[in-house]
Design brief:
It is globular and about 50 Å long. The protein has ten helices and nine strands. The chain has two domains: 86 residues, lipopolysaccharide transport protein A fold; 198 residues, no CATH class. It has 293 residues and is an alpha+beta fold. The strands form two sheets. The protein has a seven-stranded antiparallel sheet, with no helix packed on it. Strands 8-9 form a two-stranded antiparallel sheet.
Length: 293
């Protein structure tokens, strides 16, 4: 069965030996030296076949399912047998009180890692799935509505950091704003996953020319630094990281879906979610290699 690391790295990155072929039927095939093969379909869905013939299917809405060679379901985050680790029963998580949850989202106490965040949701009987695209925050808010005070609703969790970011970004042109918001989203998720800074995408070939490539890179770097400053800002930074971890947990532990949810929230807040807006141009973000411009 594939490992959690293999499941988290299903996009080609520089130096991984991937061979990418664009087929005549419009699909794209990517193969790696370890035997992993990825096929991107024209409808936006993806199928990844691993060396042991287990198959990961990713629907165009981001929903993931993983099955072994015999068709038995596996956890799409860890590769373990669905519902547990091998034949072992999943341990019951410690109860999470309303006070403890409020301390997490206020930054009084830090959430150690994704496993802890997942345990918090499980303790509160909150499903680690998202039913509708770009709805993770709304669905998390609905699930928490009886446990949290109204002003701690997840819908508003990222509004203050986003507002601070957009105070700078709303005055700039759309391409730079897009690069900035993607950088901000990736930086938050990479930090929450304990992966450090996100790798910088290649900024080249923009239809507006090299000067636009340079501007996109400049604003990517500035937004990354702004996100890092927000994360380092005492209790509010701890709260921001905790909230990102809970968002990733709600997305079944899938950082690709979580970074897309943050990106969608930023686009909605900036007014870039229309039919011809940034969200329409970039309906989902890649992982682990960031989507550039």
């Amino acid at each position: 069965m594939p490992t959690a690391e293999q499941l988290a790295h299903i996009q080609p990155v520089d130096g991984d030996g991937a061979n990418v072929v664009r087929n005549d039927d419009g699909t794209t095939s990517t193969s790696w030296p370890d035997g992993t093969v990825r096929v991107d379909e024209t409808d936006g869905s993806v199928m990844v076949t691993f060396a042991d013939d287990s198959v990961l299917n990713i629907d165009k809405d981001g929903t993931r399912t993983l099955n072994d060679v015999s068709g038995s379901p596996l956890d799409p985050r860890t590769g373990e047998a669905a519902g547990g680790q091998g034949e072992q029963e999943v341990p019951t998580p410690e109860a999470t009180t309303v006070k403890e949850l409020q301390e997490f989202v206020e930054g009084v106490t830090s959430i150690a890692d994704l496993a802890k965040a997942t345990g918090i949701l499980r303790a509160l009987n909150i499903a680690a799935t998202v039913d509708h695209r770009y709805a993770a925050l709304t669905e998390l808010a609905s699930a928490f509505q009886e446990a949290l005070e109204e002003d701690l609703s997840p819908v508003g969790w990222f509004l203050q950091p986003l507002k601070a970011l957009l105070e700078v970004l709303n005055a700039i042109e759309t391409p730079e704003r897009g690069a900035s918001m993607r950088s901000w989203s990736y930086t938050l998720v990479y930090d929450a996953m304990g992966l450090g800074d996100p790798p910088e995408p290649a900024f080249s070939g923009n239809t507006l020319g090299p000067a636009q490539d340079a501007l996109d890179k400049q604003w990517w770097d500035e937004a990354r630094d702004r996100a890092k400053a927000q994360l380092a800002d005492g209790a509010s930074g701890v709260a921001l990281r905790n909230r990102v971890l809970l968002l990733i947990a709600k997305c079944a532990g899938d950082p690709a879906q979580a970074v897309t949810e943050l990106w969608a929230a930023a686009c909605r807040k900036s007014g870039d979610d229309g039919n011809a807006g940034l969200l329409a141009a970039y309906p989902s973000l890649d992982w682990p290699q960031p989507t550039g411009a």
